[in-house]
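Most newcomers find our protein records easier to grasp once they have seen one. The structure tokens are whole numbers drawn from a learned vocabulary of backbone shapes. The record below serves as our worked example for the rest of this section.
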Amino acid sequence: MRAQQLHLVWATRQPPPQRHFSHCPVRAHTLPQLLGVFAGLPASQINRFAAKYLAVRVAFAVAYLGITDLRASFIRTGLWWTGNVLCFRTLLAATRALNASSLRR
């Protein structure tokens, strides 16, 4: 697809397609929280993760609907990966806590 055609696709400002919601908080947000609770992470750490993740997802949705410039569209990619990194960091903290508690036994 040429750059002009791609720009026209983004410029139509259509609502986010279904794939936008495939990474919704029910799937991506719940697993790190549940593992964090199970691993015994502090509630403040889990709450910070939840707040940051939801803020990033709202920013992504706003960027998805509002950005029409091809160059600026990379902001969406950065926001999407920021949400992923937040999930991975919480999962990593939970696995470290679980490993530490299993080594104490």
